[in-house]
Amino acid sequence: MKLRVNPNRMELLRLRRRLAIARRGHKLLKDKQDALIKQFIALVKENKELREEVERELQSAYLNFIGARAVMSGRSLEEALLIPGIRSYLKVGKVNLMSVFVPRFDFMQEGDPANYGFWETSGELDAALYSFIKLLPKLIKLAEMEKAVILLADEIERTRRRVNALEYVLIPQLEETISFITMKLDEVERAALTRLMKIKEIVRKH
Amino acid sequence: MERDFRYTYAATRIRCLEKELLPLSFFHRLIGASSLSEVRKILEETVYGIREGEEFDVLWERESRRTLSIVKDVLPNKRLKDFFSYSYDIFNLKVLLKNKLLAKRGMKKNWDILVDMGTVPVDKMISIVENEQYVYLPFHKKDSVYIIWDLLDRMEKAELDTKFVDLFLDKLYFNFMLNEAREMGESFLVEYIKLLIDLTNIMTFFRAKFAGRSKSFLSDVLISGGFVDEDRLVDVYQDNLDSFVKVLHYSPYSGLVEKMAALFEQGQDLASLEKLKDNYLIETLKNCKFVMFGIQPIVAFMVAKDMEIKNLRIVITGKQAGLSEGILKERLRYVYV
Amino acid sequence: MELSTAIAICGAALAAGLAGCGSSLGVGIAGEAGAGVLTEDPKKFGLVLLLQALPGTQGIYGLLAGFLIMNKIGLLGGQLVSLTIQQGLAIAFAALPVGIVGLVSGIAQGKTSAASIQLIAKRPEEAGKAVILPAMVETYAVLGLLMTVLLLNGIKI
After folding, report:
1. Distance CA B305, CA B323 (A)
2. Nearest 5 degrees, angle CA C7-CA C9-CA C10?
3. List of chains touching C (3+ CB pairs within 8 A)
4. C3-154: CATH superfamily
5. Strands, DSSP E only, in B152-304?
6. Test mutation, B1, B6, B13, chain C, max C CBs within 10 A
7. Domain A9-205 class?
8. ipTM, two decimals
9. Do B166 and A80 touch (CB under 8 A)?
10. Is residue B336 part of a domain?
11. What is the pLDDT of residues C80-134, one digit of tens each?
């Protein structure tokens, strides 16, 4: 589909410039898309590994916790966990990754997970809490990564749409319009030429 | 005339009740159950008698309440009856003191878990702690006041962690229990409390090692008064486990700690260590089966019942979480009968 | 009444008294244990009663020995036999086996009975064995009685 423009030379020049820009933009976007996908794949791979690791550890931590819940009475468990021993700090920032702003969590925890006495509490509870504590930074790292992956995927999607729009819509349109204008101009030129020749002939006959 | 004849009635009644204790085969049947409703059906045949639509959690408390009331019923005098209830007082005291600290941090108080099985009624306990009249606590009047004031004071100055509420009160409790047992002249109770102290200390040793705690921390938290001098445990804390085993070589716990140390070196699996400890306790108390006159069968029955509830909880919590039969069988503690 | 008769009476009193003490303590211990069982399982009353009664025999033996002595010195017939001091002392000594053995075996049998009651509390099917164990203690009470009877027979008045 061609654009609805006046087929004149001015327009032609303008369109040619636009085409050049569109071509350059297309190339740039294409490069960006490739880079994004590369980045994305790396991130997804890393993410998958981390997720598997977290899930594995989470399972063993839960197993410990189930054990602790089984060997301690409900009341003792609640008493033991009445005052939490750990303080956690989370700072949320943003970093620019391929012009995508992904979140960056700075996580810190201090204190003692096993904040209770030793009598009437089970060692399994210690084990569970310590593994949870070890797990939490990883869990937050995982959240950060998954969000980055989602944002990156969005960006890739958006870039691809742009690339496609350029490649399959704008550039063909421009090209078509340009060729239309060129043809039109040629046509006009030819018409002018023919007219000129015709006039010349009429003049010569007289 | 031997004074132990005071417990003839109690011991015989307990002996009758020992028949109710669930044998190992029962637990295996429970583990083999295909669904939770089958578990319920199996439990219905026992003294636990789960009712329609009842949560499993209700059972444990009901049964330990029943056990305590039976034990209190058979024991001949108030001092002995109280002896077995003090642990609930200490529990309430811990909850209330921790709540006090929570309130100071501006957090909501949680009194739901207070339990009314102690010697001091719950509302009186609340008023004791709220009004800071620690002198009305049943444990060595002057000492407990001093210890609690000292504790709160040092918490205030942030010298101590909040976990020291538990640790200090545990010490107070064991100290008091040991004293009570001695004053009553019950040599078996003295031995029993000492056994509990030692087992707690041994477990604490491993748990401190697991968490990488300091030597001074260990010397702060170990409970004194057991058969094994706690300083000797502190001395070998930083050495390897061999010297720990060596220190306890001539104690009754040599076999236990050897197994524990081996397991700990393999994979720091505290769950298995706990199991070893529980098994040791039951195994030691099994000797009470041969005692006809004395308080031994009563104490053994209480511990056996505790362990039985623990075993049931292990099986049922495990079943709910969908653990395999193998894991459940492995986690099961010894049974008394 | 002569001093010698008084000494003989003292023997009779010892026989019945000591053996009675033993029995009452024994029956008491067994009874406490029995009450423990019956609280939980009243159906076992018959067996428990049998086991509780076992330590009671020593008292009966003591009583029997006492009667024999009374008979010998004529306390029952109303016609006192005159005794020498030596004879009186001999009768008193003869009374000792049933008295002392009755006291000790009564308590011992009470304990065994209580233990047996605990046994039937746990394993009612072992009731037969549970009865035999305290019955073994009975042997020595019987031997004590036998000795007293033989000694009394041996004393010529």
Report:
1. 24
2. 60
3. B
4. lithium bound rotor ring of v- atpase (1.20.120.610)
5. none
6. B13
7. mainly alpha
8. 0.85
9. yes
10. no
11. 888 899 999 999 999 999 999 999 999 999 999 999 998 888 888 888 888 999 9
